[in-house]
Structure formats: structure tokens, C-alpha cells
Amino acid sequence: MFDRIAALGKAALDTIAGAGAALIMLVRALIGRPNLRKSWPLLMQQMYSLGVLSLLIIIISGLFIGMVLGLQGFTILVDFGAEQSLGQMVALSLLRELGPVVTALLFAGRAGSALTAEIGLMKATEQLSSLEMMAVDPLRRVVSPRFWAGFYSMPILATIFSAVGIYGGYLVGVQWLGVDDGAFWSVMQSSVEWREDIINGLIKSIVFAFVVTWIALYKGYNCTPTSVGISRATTSTVVTASLAVLGLDFVLTALMFG
Amino acid sequence: MESRNTHLAVGMFVILGVLAMLFLGLRAANTSTVTNGDTYKLFAKFDNIGGLKERSPVKVGGVVVGRVSAITLDGTYYEPLVEMTISKRYSEFSDTSSVSILTSGLLGEQYIGLNPGFIDDTVEILGDGDFVYDTKSALVLEDLIGQFLFGQGKD
Predict the structure, then answer these.
(1) ipTM summary value
(2) What's the pTM?
């Protein structure tokens, strides 16, 4: 009985200590005057591996999700003779929800897991300790550029995702199913607002970028330095980041559109 | 050299992001095919345009022949003035033609239906900048219900 209560207490303490450690890691990685000449190439390298290499999966899934939205939306809207509102439906669902959320989920799976595994392996092979031995702060040298790269990459990826998705909806709705071309765009233009929809979607993806990258880096930096530990940390990154994104999305939607 | 390629790829990535943003922000790219070639303008005054929008289609018997290019209020009586851009391929409408604002389906978008008039020696062909005088406004559901109820009361 008391053992169980003690286990609960230990789990609670571990959770709180973990949150604190994650915050300390982030603050220590981000504060301090950045040395632009040294950190710029590091940032570029990470932008390449996190952003550019994620581009293909983002474009392909964006295209297909837009096409599916166009197809499903058309079959429902055509019953009401309102298939010309298809552009509005596709654009709003992509810009407000699917663009930021699906990008964040894909990013957590594609780039977040890689970040965790990379840093976890650095820790297991004691590369991080060797950096410290050489008086190089691993938080500044390893963690910080990865964080900023993820933070900058994901909003760009989400924007590309939405644009490609709208084009996918256009391909299916207009080119294949024969929704009127002008009505598709004019209904979309009259319903999508710059501030209300596009900027709010961008804010969402910035928040998700922060959270996903942070979780991935912390899980890697804090993993048990064994092969089992790295595998657990990688799984935990994807699960935690996905849940955090979905939960935060509800809160942000309630704040923005509620 | 490798770092230069990395910079190049990241630069392209950022440019792609900016282009996507521009696409989302401007989407106004003129994608209508009917009004891409030679066009001429027709005008029509309505009492009520209902839910008509700029870029709504102008149709003859269901076939798109042009687009609404501007909607303004005109003159001292504040009548809605609709400017239509019609493709030059369809340039033989007589001045006995009429336009009406119709709705596609029960909940669909509104468009302009153009009914070509008869042609004989006395009528003229509509050219650039001419007015179509025979217009029928959009049906407003509340007005219809009001008329219906009013008609019931008289019986």
C-alpha cells in the first residue's frame, strides 16, 4: 500500500524535476551572446537537415491531404448544390488546422525523432562529455543551433504545406470534378482573411515548432545513455510531442476562434 | 564547397516558404480561362444584387461567357452597377438581351444569367461599355415570404 503511494510520489517528483530540467536546459542553451561567425554555419547545417530534408514529405502529404479534402468536400457539398464553396472549405481547414497540426506531427516524426536519436547517441558515445572536456559548452554548440533551426523551419514548412494543399484541392475540385474555376478562388478569397486565418495559422505553427523541438532536444539530452534508453527516448519524443501538439492545438483554437 | 551547397539549399527553402506565403496572401492569380483572351465590358443596373460577388460567372444557358469584374453603387439613386467582362468570342448579343441574378442550387453561389435577345434590323448589337437595360434583381427570400404573407392576408 505505502509502496504504491511512494511510487506515485516518485513519479510526480520525477515529472516536476523533468519539467524543471527541460526548462533549465532550454534557458542555458538560449541565453548568452551568440557568436554569429561561429553559429551561423551550424545553424545552416541544421536548417538543411531539419528543414530542407523534410520538404519532400511535407509537399507530398500536403498535396494528398488537399486532394482528399477536395474529394470529400465535393461529395458532401454537391448534395446541397454548394460545391462552389469547396475552395473556402479546403483553404480554411488547411490554413487554420491541418497545415500547422499535420506539419507539426510529421515534423515530430521525421525530424524530432532524428534529433533525439542524434543527441542521445552523442551522449551514449560520450561526445557531449568530450566537448565539455574541450571547454566547449555542448548546450551552446549542439543544442542551441538545432533548437533555432527547428524553430525557424517549421513555420516555413507549414506555410508550404498549406499552399501545396490548396493547390491539391484545386487540382481535384476544379480540374477533375469540374467546380467552377473563378468561383473556387473568389469564394476562397472572400472568406479567407489575412489576419484572422493566415497569421493565426502561422502563430500556431510557431508555437508547435517551439514545443516539438524543445521536447525532442530534451528527450535526447536527458536519455539513459544505452541503446534501450535511446530507443525509449525516441519513442517518447514522438508520443509526447504529438500529444502536446494536439492538446495545444485545442487550447490555441479556443483562444483564437472560440 | 559543401557548406556553400548547404547554404544554397537553405536559401531555396526560405525562398520557397516566401513564395508559399505570397501564394496564400495573394491567391488572386487570374485563373479564369474565359476572360483571359480579348474581352469587352457590359454594364447593368440592378435594384438588388443579393450575394453576387466580383469574379462571379456570367452564364448563357449555363455556359460561362464572362465574369463580374466590378460592383459599385452608381448615380444619385445609389443603384448597384455591375460591370461584366465578356469574352470577345461571344460578341453578338443584341440590346434586347436581358440579365438576371440567379442562384445555382438552393444554397449555391449567385451568378448572372444572360438571356440573348432576338436580332432583326431594328435592334443593335451590344458593344464595349454598353448597358443592358432589361435586368431582373436577385430574389431575396425575406421579400418573397413577405409578399406571400401579404397575398394571403387579402383573401
Answers:
(1) 0.78
(2) 0.71
